[in-house]
Amino acid sequence: MSFHIRRIEPDDAAAMAQLQSAPGVVRHTSQQPYQSVADWQHRLQHLPADNHWLVACTADGEVMASAGLNILPQVRCRHVADIFLVVRDEWQGKGVGRALLQALLDLSDNWLGLIRLELMAQQDNQRAIALYERFGFRHEGVVRQDILQDGCYVDSVVMARLHWPEGRQA
């Protein structure tokens, strides 16, 4: 399978509306289904500078997945970013998420100098949790009953990865 990774563009609004409405994506995020293209256009045109958002595309430009990191705005937390990763249902399990996560980690470690990446994953999303664990994310806790999924409240796992440049670990 051939795909490439690039930074998200405002022209990706329609693709993002479609991606974020995929049943498997909606199920495992806090996003609402049926997001409009107009909402996505507005969001992508006004991305803060500290949002680093990537997409994985097929050879013909179809958006298969997206991932990003959002650096925390507080001055004393500029070494920390929240991350997210979503893959369209039909592309899950094919290496797209792994490649996007690797690209985010490269960006974080080698270009942005971030120390801590954190995320929350719904406890039943074992495929995503296993992927994060393979890349060094560790469980830090559970947030109970925080997401409404299919009419029921479910728990989320808090995970983080620490990456210290050589010789700088506290």
Automatic annotation (TrEMBL):
PROSITE patterns referenced in this protein's UniProt entry, alphabetically: GNAT
N-acetyltransferase domain span: 3-164
Keywords, ordered alphabetically: Acyltransferase, Transferase
SUPFAM superfamilies per record: Acyl-CoA N-acyltransferases (Nat)
Gene Ontology MF annotations: acyltransferase activity, transferring groups other than amino-acyl groups
Transmembrane keyword on record: no
UniProt keyword Lipid metabolism, yes or no: no
Pfam families linked to this entry: Acetyltransf_1
InterPro entries: Acyl_CoA_acyltransferase (IPR016181), Bact_Acetyltransf (IPR050832), GNAT_dom (IPR000182)
Gene3D superfamilies reported in the protein's UniProt record: 3.40.630.30
Domain of life: Bacteria
Protein name: GNAT family N-acetyltransferase
Native organism taxonomy: Bacteria, Pseudomonadati, Pseudomonadota, Betaproteobacteria, Neisseriales
